[in-house]
Structure formats: C-alpha cells, structure tokens
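User: quick one, fold this
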Amino acid sequence: MRLPTSIQETIVKQLIHLNPFFVKLYGVKAIRHCEDGRTIRLYTKNKGIVINIDITYNEASDLYDIKAVKLKQDDFTWEQTIFNQEGFTWEELDETIHQILHKHANIPLNYL
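Assistant:
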C-alpha cells in the first residue's frame, strides 16, 4: 500500500472538514492515494452503481480538478467519463461531488 503524501492527506482532511459524513453519505468504499502524489481516488458504490472520483490538486493554480468515471456494472472494466472539470476551490469539493453522485448514482440532495 502506498503511503499518502501531505497533499493527499490534506485533500482528505478538507473533505472531512467540509462534510464529516462524506464517506457514509457518498458510499465511499475505499480511498486510493494515486502515484502522482497529488491525486486521491474515491471508490464509490451506491445502489449497484460504481463511480470513481479523482480529485487532483493543481499547485500552479492552487485549485482542484475533478474527474468522475462510471464503471460498467457487469464486469467493472468499461469506463465512461461522466464529469471532468478543472478549477475548483477546496470549499467547492463536497458540493461538486454531491452533485455528481446525485445525478449519476441517485444520491439524494440532502446531508446527514
């Protein structure tokens, strides 16, 4: 298992600060610290729908990029990018993830 960098630890801490219940609310089954040292991947599964959400910190702009990929339910190998945008502040991370999962995994638009 790869140890997280300080950037990756900060992303997780910021998500917890924005929504201490994000793991349960969003059906996060695992958090992966990607090789680049500035990206985390949230593996989510809700009602049989699997969506991987990558959050990448961009040092040059001091903003975050978010990419979400929906996996095929049958074999989890086919991927479809459902969201890919740059330039989010850390304060926008939780709400953006919430919107993605609401739209693509039928997560209610409410907080615990």
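User: anything notable?
Assistant: The mean pLDDT is 91.
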